Amino acid sequence: MAKVELKQPIVDEISALLDGAASAVVVDYRGLTVAQDTELRKTLREAGVSYKVYKNTLIRRAAEGTAFAALDPNLEGPTAIAVSKDDATMPARLLAEFAKKADKLEIKGGVVEGAYYDAKGMQVIATIPSREILLGRLFGSMQSPITNLARVLNQIAEKQGGGAAEPEAAAEA
After folding, report:
1. Which of 17, 29, 101, 103 has a C-alpha 20 to 30 A away from that of 35?
2. pLDDT digits over 70-94, tens only?
3. How far apart are CA 145 and CA 153, in angstroms?
C-alpha cells in the first residue's frame, strides 16, 4: 500500500472534523506536562471542543479549498488543533484561559466563522463572551424597558384606582 493511501483516512478524519466547524484554533503545545495536557484535553472535551494533534501536512491537505486553508502559515512545528462546531469563540476562550496557567501553551492562530486571525487576533476573540451570555445580555436589555414600562403603568393604575375609589366611597356615605 502506498503511503498516500495509508494517510488518506486521517485526511478524511480531519476534513470531517473541519466540515461545518464554526472555528478552529491551532496551538503549539511544546513544553506542556502530561498532567497539563490531560487537564487541557478534559476541559476542551467537556465544552464540546475537539482537540487533536495531527501532522501539519495532513492538516494542510484536509483544509485545501476551505476557509481553514488560511491556517497554512501557522502549520510549523508541533501543532494541535481545537475545533468547535457550535460556539465559534469557545476554543479560543478555553485555550487562552488555560495558557494563563500553562505559559508553554502558545496560540498560533485560528479561523473563526471563515475569517483568519493571527495569535493577537485570537487573544481578542478569546475575550468575546459565549453566545449564551451574549443572548442573555441582549434579552436582559430588551426586557428592562418593558419591565420599567409595566412598573410605571402599574403605579399609574394604582393611583387612579386609589383616587377613583375614594369619591365613590364618599358618594355612598
Report:
1. 17
2. 999 999 998 999 999 988 889 999 9
3. 12
Instruction: With residue 109 as reference, give the H or E element that holds it.
Output: strand 106-112
Residue 20 has pLDDT above 90, yes or no: no
Q: What is the DSSP string of 125-166?
A: HHTSPPHHHHHHHHHHHHHHHHHHHHHHHHHHHHHHHHHHHH
pTM attached to this predicted model = 0.71
Other residues' Cβ atoms within 10 Å of the Cβ of residue 53: 11
What are the CA-CA distances from residue 27 to residues 87, 89, 122, 134 (Å)? 18, 15, 11, 26
Beta strands 115-118 and 80-84: pairing type?
Answer: unpaired
Size of the chain in residues: 173
Q: What is the pLDDT of residues 99-120, one digit of tens each?
A: 988 888 899 999 998 889 998 9
| Distance from C-alpha of 24 to C-alpha of 158, rounded to nearest angstrom | 57
Rg (CA), the chain: 27
